[in-house]
Amino acid sequence: MIISVTSLKGGVGKSTIAQNLAVCFAHGGYKVCIADADTNQSALRWSSIREEDLPSIPAFGTPEKTLSANVKQLAKDYEVVIIDGTPTLDKITSKIIVLADLLLIPILPSGLDIWATEQFLQRYEDAKVERESDISARFILNRFRPNTNLGKEVKEILQDTSIEVMNTTIKDRMAYAEAVIKGLGVIEYKDEKAKNELIDLYTEVLASLPQK
Question: Is the pTM of this model over 0.85?
Answer without folding.
Answer: yes
